[in-house]
Structure formats: structure tokens, C-alpha cells
Design goal:
The protein is an alpha+beta fold. It is built from 6 helices and 3 strands. Strands 2-1-3 form a 3-stranded antiparallel beta sheet. The longest helix has 17 residues, at 13-29. The chain is elongated.
Length: 184
């Protein structure tokens, strides 16, 4: 798999479609309109989501990303002399390896990245990511959502795809809108 730039509408077509479907499912659960180009019928939406969740093995992939971000946040990786972080993620094996490189080791970091990428080329869902930052705080500020716990999102996807029955519509009488219970 190649690196994903999902926020700029680039990336693996199936992942983009899945996230559009998930956004629509969440919107419908909250009484909001679905994402354009996705089914407006809840049953059809959930059926399509189920297919992507199964084919892409999304639960394991998202858990691997969350684990990688937690590893990067750990004190052992957040030392001042580390400048490059090479992540080798293999969701099927539930493994994430982090290799750190110092500022002057950019050539070595890039060589190792290409080596890992070749090694993982035929491993479904696995990928290598090379991050270059002066500090992980810069990454946290630029991409705060990557450091959130993916377990919450995975649980919401499981809840959504568990049944084809749409959830109750939010009441319009109250100023409260029914929102997803993210933190049970």
C-alpha cells in the first residue's frame, strides 16, 4: 500500500470511500444529511460499510495506527536527538516497529525506509512510514487527530455495522441533539 494523504482527497480509493460511508453513517445517526455520493438509505449504507470493513481489515489497520502513535509518544522515542521515525506497521501480525534516526542520518533513514517498503510490498495492509520532525510536538500540533485513541472510532464502526436497523432519530423538540456516545 502506498502512503495515504486522505485529508487532501488523495489515497487508496477504497479507504476514501469507507471514510465517506462512515461519515454518512454517523451523520444519519445524528439526524444530519449524509455525505454526497453515499447511500441515504441506512441499510444500504451499512451493507456497503460492512464490505469495506471486511475487505480492508480496517479494525486491525486502525488499531495498528493508534498503537504506532502511542509508541511515538512514549518517552523512549521522544528524546531530543531523534529526528526521523521509521514506522513498520503490519496489522495482520498486530505489530508496529519504530526505528529512530538522528538528524545527520537522513540518507540512512531513507535507505531503510525504501528497504522496508520493498519488504512489505506484498503484505496486505502493511506499510512503512518515515516521519521527519524536530519534535513530536510539531506532529501533534499539525495532526492532532492522529494521536487520538483509534479504539473509540473502531468501536463506533463496530456498533454501526452490527445491525441494519437505523438508530432512533434525534428529537427535534429539544435543543439537545442525539450524538454518538463516544466515551461510554
Amino acid at each position: 500500500m502506498q502512503q495515504q494523504a486522505l485529508k487532501s482527497s488523495q489515497g487508496e480509493k477504497d479507504l476514501l470511500r469507507f471514510f465517506a460511508l462512515a461519515s454518512s453513517a454517523f451523520a444519519l445517526r445524528e439526524g444530519a444529511p449524509p455525505v454526497p455520493g453515499t447511500p441515504s438509505a441506512y441499510r444500504e449504507l451499512v451493507r456497503e460499510m460492512r464490505d469495506y470493513v471486511r475487505r480492508l481489515d480496517l479494525a486491525k489497520r486502525l488499531q495498528a495506527y493508534g498503537h504506532a502513535m502511542k509508541l511515538l509518544s512514549s518517552p523512549q522515542h521522544n528524546r531530543g536527538d531523534n529526528h526521523y521515525f521509521l514506522l513498520e506497521m503490519n496489522p495482520a501480525l498486530m505489530s508496529v516497529q519504530v526505528t529512530t534516526f538522528k538528524f545527520g542520518e537522513s540518507t540512512l533513514a531513507n535507505q531503510k525506509y525504501l528497504e522496508i517498503e520493498r519488504k512489505l510490498r506484498n503484505t496486505p495492509g502493511a506499510e512503512a512510514v518515515l516521519v521527519s520532525v524536530d519534535s513530536l510536538d510539531a506532529v501533534r500540533k499539525a495532526y492532532p487527530n492522529y494521536f487520538l485513541d483509534t479504539a473509540v472510532f473502531v468501536q463506533l464502526i463496530r456498533e454501526t455495522t452490527r445491525t441494519l436497523t437505523p438508530p432512533p432519530r434525534p428529537s427535534r423538540r429539544s435543543s439537545d441533539t442525539r450524538q454518538l456516545d463516544l466515551f461510554k
